[in-house]
Amino acid sequence: QVHLVESGGGLVQTGGSLRLSCAASGSIFSPNVMGWYRQAPGKQREKVAVVFTGGNTDYADSVKGRFTISRDNAKNTVYLQMDSLKPEDTAVYYCNLRGTYDNYWGQGTQVTVSS
Predict the structure, then answer these.
(1) Please, which pLDDT band fits residue 31 given cuts at 50, 70 and 90?
(2) Sequence-ordered list of residues with C-beta below 8 angstroms from that of 15, at least 6 positions apart, any chain
């Protein structure tokens, strides 16, 4: 089993920044993909950004140039630096860890951007 613990959400004004962290513990498998997804009220969960074990990344078009995902393999931790935040970034952000046969989710952390 794998346990994911997120931190770093909160309330910020438009144009502000937040940094999310997600620490994985338990039976961590490798290689894997760690990432962040978000779900706004009334909308489907969507991918924000993912990072592969080797460091390759992939971003949603809506966050390119504003968000940066990174990971520390030694700590089994993934980070999401969010800059130039917009009200439309408001959502619950979920950490995800997946491999060939496994898929785990964190409990979610609320990010609210006020206009």
Answers:
(1) confident
(2) 84, 85
